[in-house]
Amino acid sequence: MTQKMLDRALFDALSLVNRKLRSAFDARARARGLTLSRARTLFILFLQDGPSQRELADALDVETPTVVRLLDGLEGHGLIERRADEADRRTKRVYLTAHGRAVAEEVEELAREVRAQVLHGLGPAEQRQALHLIGRMADNLGAMEARATGVEPMKARIPEEAALEASK
């Protein structure tokens, strides 16, 4: 196989895994009455409650008006609440309600189930190798974006011990 063919095959495989992973997670989220966007938002808030709307938009990689509409829906379902920041009343911070935390725990369990099925048969050494390689590709993408925008990228790699803990 030529390098050009290998490059294409790797990109095709990464794209396929991404599509199938999103599809698998989305189907399970929809079965619980959530959209993928809402499930991702609840998951982020489960990990760190109280980000600003701007920080949440950054974490979701969407624009602030998009996250505002998303939060309007979650708030309407009693899953989150927005509170003014104590230091800057113009900034709204987002918190899970008790009901939202319960649903977020379901989302975390759903994510654990998907991870277990997707990673079935891969040992810790293979997972570390995959994480290392994907981290390098993410760093390359960050550098590529930095050259285009002039903004210094953040390192994408996850510390190995945190990645192993997250995979449990």
From TrEMBL:
Keyword flag Transcription regulation: yes
Every HTH marR-type domain range: 7-139
Keyword terms of this UniProt record: DNA-binding, Transcription, Transcription regulation
Keyword Transcription regulation: yes
InterPro entries in the cross-refs: HTH_MarR-typ, MarR/SlyA-like, Tscrpt_reg_MarR-type_CS, WH-like_DNA-bd_sf, WH_DNA-bd_sf
Protein name (record): HTH marR-type domain-containing protein
Highest taxon in the source lineage: Bacteria
Native source species: Xaviernesmea rhizosphaerae
PANTHER family: TRANSCRIPTIONAL REGULATOR SLYA, TRANSCRIPTIONAL REGULATOR, MARR FAMILY
